[in-house]
Amino acid sequence: MANVPSFVVPATPLKPAIPVRRLATPVARRFYQICLAMVADSLAEAGLTPLQYGTLTYLNKETGEPGIDQVGLAARLGIDRNNVGVILAELEARELLERRVDPADKRARRLYLTSKGERLYRRLVPENSATNERILAPLSPRERETLFDLLIRIIQANAIYARPGAGRRKRADNRVDPHSS
Predict the structure, then answer these.
(1) How distant, in Å, are the alpha carbons of 37, 76, 77, 105 from that of 80?
(2) Is residue 19 part of a domain?
(3) Mean pLDDT throughout 118-122?
(4) CATH of the domain at 61
């Protein structure tokens, strides 16, 4: 092996690429997996999950919609109201957001970031932007625009399927009928 030129044997063995079938679902799943992992890594220091950061994104004063309600936030995040409630409770416990009674409907609550939540969001924006740039780094600016245009067209054409819980298997009823034998 000592007589073999270094360009023949790599110093670090290359990992073979994991094959991905050229079908929408496996490609989309793998892309989502990569995006989620990279964003989660960028938020780890702040102790936030991607959905918690998404909540800050939708509620911040600069580019968000402060004052939306839980149902509106759930729709924007693409998750159900119960899951958004868990996220809100976690952020509220960290004093990053507050719920205020809606003056028009005393049963409803409007959502706002606290000053601490606003500061954290502003601090995280540059790192999150850089992470999104790293995700798209293999593409040219024109290819990025094409990717977004195509994905948005697919999403809009299939919007009826973009709802929380779509595609989940129904739980099997494992109870035994005492009258059957």
Answers:
(1) 22, 10, 9, 21
(2) no
(3) 98
(4) 1.10.10.10
Convert 22-57 to b/e letters by CB count within 10 Å (16 or more is b): eeeeeeeeeeeeeeeeebeebbeeeebbbbbbbbbb
Residue 72 lies in a domain: yes
| Domain assignment present for 142 | no
Q: Per-residue pLDDT averaged across 4-21, rounded?
A: 51
Both tokens assigned to 125: 């924006």
Is the four-CA dihedral 150, 156, 161, 163 of positive or negative sign? positive
For residue 6, pLDDT over 50 is answered with no
> Domain count of the chain?
1
Inter-residue contact 33 to 41 (CB < 8 Å): no
Residue 162 resides in a domain: no
How far, in Å, CA of 92 to CA of 98, rounded? 6
**pLDDT(174) > 90:** no
How far separated are the first and last CA of the chain, in Å rounded?
A: 71
In this prediction the pTM is 0.77
Q: Which two tokens stand for residue 79?
A: 């998750």
User: In terms of Cα–Cα distance, which of 68, 67, 77, 111 is closest to 91?
Assistant: 111
